[in-house]
Amino acid sequence: MIRRILSIALLTTMASLSSAASELTAGENMPELRGEYLSGRKAILPKDASGRVALLLFGFSYQSRFAVEDWSRRFRQDFDKNPQVTFYEIPMIGGMARIGKWFIDSGMRRGTPKADQENVITVYGGTEPWKQRLGFKAEDSAYLVIVDQNGKVAWRHAGPFEETSYEALAVQVRQLASAQ
Question: 97-101: which pairs have CB atoms within 8 A and are 24 or more residues apart?
Answer without folding.
Answer: 97/124, 98/124, 98/125
